[in-house]
Amino acid sequence: MGEPVVEQEDVLADVSDDVLVQRAVDGDTDAFAGLIGRHGPQLRALMTRLTGSQAEGDQLAQETFYQAWRELPQLEEGAALRGWLLRSGTRLALTHLRSTRPSDDGRPAAAASGDLAEADVPDGRRARLAALSRVLGALPENDRHCWLLREMGGLDYDEIADQLQLPVTDVRGCLARARASIYTRMEEWR
User: Fold this and answer.
1) What residues are paired with 108 via a beta bridge?
2) Residues 106, 95 contacting (CB under 8 angstroms)
3) Which of 3, 130, 142, 181, CA to CA, is 20 to 30 A from 171?
4) Domain topology for 1-106
5) Which residues of the chain have pLDDT under 70?
6) Rounded CA gap, 160 and 144, in Å?
7) What are the residue boundaries of the structural domains of the chain, listed by start?
8) What is the C-alpha to C-alpha distance for residues 5 and 111, in angstroms, rounded to an integer?
9) Whole-angstrom distance between the N-terminal and C-terminal Cα of the chain?
């Protein structure tokens, strides 16, 4: 009997980001694929939520990983990769949103609806996600972006301020308003 086949993904699951980044910098495409597998789903989800489009979210996540491949040698600490990817992706998404044609209400057309991706969502949660999408779509742009970057992207206040080019006090205010609005408008779903 032959030895069991071990998937490359399984082998890389226990390897730290720091080691995978170093291997990727040395040209190991399997190590980079492991980083994509590890961080891709969260990055895609954040990009999709920021743009309101699965296709645009996928494209921006792909562009972020392409940029990461080129710039990995400049990353001083591989353990900081997750935050670096989220910041880079957010910059790309915000640049994309700023460059899109505004809708009737002045917000970028792609982000005006605030739609959340519904792929692989059980039916019981679909209505709640639709309600949250409507609430997010009704928020002012800065409030919505701050909330998404904090709650979906896991960025801290300083990182959000840097991404949106706002003072930290404004970020705190945007988050407070967004949370209050979401809390009030989602009352029936609790």
Assistant:
1) 102
2) no
3) 130
4) Rna Polymerase Sigma Factor; Chain: A (1.10.1740)
5) 1-11, 101-126, 129, 189-190
6) 12
7) 1-106, 123-190
8) 45
9) 55
